[in-house]
Amino acid sequence: MSSLSVRLPLSRDVGDGFEMIKNFKTMIKQNFKMLLLTSPGERVMEPDFGVGMKKYLFEAFSETTFAKIERDIFKQAEIYMPTIQIEEIFFTALDENANALSVRIKYSIPNLNIKDLLEFTI
Description:
Elements: E1 5-6, E2 12-13, E3 17-18, E4 20-21, H1 24-37, H2 63-80, E5 85-93, E6 101-109, E7 114-121
Antiparallel strand pairs: 1-4, 2-3, 5-6, 6-7
């Protein structure tokens, strides 16, 4: 089967040279995660690309902060990932570490009839 994209982070693979993504669901999920973790100005030739989740790391987690993050995620996904439809975003401040936030995003890919969940911690 042909490959769609290289899997990040890069790792060696005997068959393809580097580990590759071979299905659309995995590629879209990786691209969505990159959109969330990339800071605006970090991507060459796309200064507005990215939510920049790291910038929220040392903010006091409150409903206001969560609403701001959610607004940024929806705005960026609408511009750079119109193939996905965000259904729900969940935020959980981790008790053991006051400066850690767990994010869970339920989304779908209507054209492929796929539902998925993206989870990460900042």
